[in-house]
Design brief:
metal-binding; single chain; Fructose-1,6-Bisphosphatase, Chain A, domain 1; metal ion binding; binds D-MYO-inositol-1-phosphate; 12 helices; globular; magnesium; 37% helix; Inositol_monophosphatase_CS; IMPase; 5-stranded mixed β-sheet; alpha+beta
Length: 323
Amino acid sequence: MAATNPPQAAQQDWTRTAVPDAAPFAPFFRAALAVAREAGAIIKTAFEDGQAPPNPNIKDANDVDLVTATDQAVEALIQSRLRDAFPDYAFIGEETVAANNGQAPPLTARPTIICDPVDGTTNFVHGFPFVCTALALVVDHAPVVGIVYNPILDQLYVAHKGYGAWCNGQPLPRHRAAHGMDARAALFITEGGHDRSQVAMDAKIGTWRQALAADGKYPPVRGIRCTGSGALNLCMIARGAADVYWEVGLHAWDMAAAAVIVTEAGGMVVGDEALDEDRRKTWDPTSTPFDVMGRKAMAIRKHDVAFMRETFERVTDYPCPRD
Ligand code: IPD
């Protein structure tokens, strides 16, 4: 007898397999997933309109840090839905922070929703299809739920601490999980970012040069990629589609959701607690939590402390004010 496809409802319900009702933060996960899908519909409609937003505004007098009416409308929607459902949770959202002169509220032990309504705003403005909504729940400073939805490519990445990571019904990682970590075979993701100061450019270009041409101490990597979205860069690591991602200058909303997706996929992500040379002296890879507000991320697709230490040596860190 010919195999029949599972009923559509069952196909669509993979998120209940990924995060069962027994998971401690399942109610948040389901509410956040519903609003991420609503957000995705709004973003996709605006994206497919084919008209770049006429006047994307800039933030903090930085010509390359854009914001559009869609970013603001989507954050307002997410905030109202999730604050109604979880009134005791704190909220940190990219556009709410921007409206408060860039001042993020301090992250405390209290459950905190961290939201990037549109990560990849420059892509959104240009029609480059790496655009997503990223929603995280952070409890006692640690990300425990992550949802990253790219509505243009219809890729939904989810994770709940302790329950694994998934994309469109498939457990992560999807690619090359059997290969060891080896710089010579590595795809390295990094970004131009928004900070174009001399110190930042020296560090970034120095890192690119070192990664591509190497210096004799380490071999060159196979290639460099950028998606233009910090959250989607981390999801590429979780997929196993790239080996290393490093960026300084990210914000909590770019990193928090996808950080739990990386670790639940079996990867490793560290922040300022390990990238800053002084803080690294006391870094214990088994117990130091990822510094969500530290503006830095280094992620690798497998938990491999020795390879992580090697990658520290290959990038040039630089100072960045905390969120
Ligand atoms: C930016 C993107 C970009 C990264 C920047 C982020 P936005 O977020 O994630 O890839 O290089 O550091 O600020 O502005 O598109 O939400």
